[in-house]
Amino acid sequence: MTLLRTVGLLCLSLLLFVGRAQAGLIFHADLTTGAEAGANSFADQANRGAPTTGPGLGLGAPRPLSFGTANFFLNDAGTALSFSATVFNIDFTGGQTPGPNDDLVAAHIHAGGAGPPTLPVVWGFFGSPFNDDNSPGALLTPKSDCTAFATGVGGTCSGTWDLLEGNLTTLEAQLPNILAGRSYINFHTTQYTGGEIRGFLVQVPGPATLTLVGLGLLGIAGIRRRTV
Fold first, then answer.
1. What total of structural domains would you count in the chain?
2. Is residue 92 part of a domain?
3. pLDDT at 144 over 80
4. DSSP labels for 161-209?
5. Do residues 74 and 24 lie in contact, with contact meaning Cβ atoms separated by under 8 Å?
6. pLDDT at residue 65 greater than cutoff 60
7. Contact 66, 43 (CB under 8 A)
8. What is the spatial distance between Cα 169 and Cα 178, in angstroms, rounded to a whole number?
9. In a domain, 7, yes or no
């Protein structure tokens, strides 16, 4: 009975999610150092026997690898892409750690056609360029859609990329690249100005898929109940 109740609650949450997802598209990104290209990342740390630590803070000591996650919502009209991101082990204020290497200097969304692993900046939300024109963060120095953790190292960011905003481009022009999986979110630090962590935007399975998953879970729970 407990299993059936638990699965029922899970299916209810899936159905509620389906109701919201029908109004647009949802994307997810896992931000890692390994997703960076070439010398901009810590990706070779594992080859040096230190898979969980990155270069020092500027004072000689190693530091934990940075990482994060981000979620995006494209409205049904395709006129606004909202996002929220949480990042760990990058210094959002310049004062969360004693050294400068991990200081956040810029954060953007990159996108473009098929080509090299490094794509152009198309919309910035921390530092320069900053393209969230309707954000209160446009009045800050540096311009920012981000907030540092009250304790610990890292912070959160959230904003909305509107249809005609962008860095020498627009959301309207970049939608084909985003929908084709040719876009990523990137956080740049003092040490890795080309990007310390990034993650490609991956579309979350559609409502029909989630509904089938929910029905499948209910079916399994029903069979399990009859056999115990």
1. 1
2. yes
3. yes
4. EETT-SSSS-HHHHHHHHHTT-EEEEEEESS-TT-SEEEE-EEPPPHHH
5. yes
6. yes
7. no
8. 13
9. no
Residue 35 structure tokens: 């997703």
Residue that the structure tokens 């040490």 belong to: 191
Indicate whether 220 pLDDT > 90.
no
Beta-bridge partner residues of 111 = 183
Q: Is residue 8 part of a domain?
A: no
User: Does some domain include residue 172?
Assistant: yes
Residue 29's domain comprises: 23-204
The percentage of the chain sitting over the pLDDT mark of 70, rounded to a whole number, equals 70
Gap between the Cα atoms of 70 and 96, Å rounded: 21
